[in-house]
Amino acid sequence: MNCLHCTFHVCYVHVCLFPQDFKGEMRQGQDMVNNATQLGERVCMTTAPRGQEAIQKEINTLRDDWAAFAGAVNEVESNLEVCIGNWVELDDTLSGFTHWMEKMERQVGDGFSCVYCFLQSVL
Description:
Radius of gyration: 30 Å
Number of domains: 1
Structural class: mainly alpha
């Protein structure tokens, strides 16, 4: 998203909620999950079958929890992008309306001045 076209508030929300560092943090989290999974699998090779089941269950829970979390983060980011797009569109529309309204007010004022001048010259 190009923040040159955003209002201050929209850019502030976007930068504060999803800074570029956050994406790096998510990659770091994925790396940690992968590392824990590999270590758990290594430990399983030297663990009794009963312990292997418990470790495998923990690994699966970790993977499932991470997948749910990452999915939720992606959904929030996607929703935020849509919201920012809507704010930008609203801001552009309001700006266009404001310019139009100012133009109309000038035209009405100019017309009123002409009528006023005409009436003064007639009277």
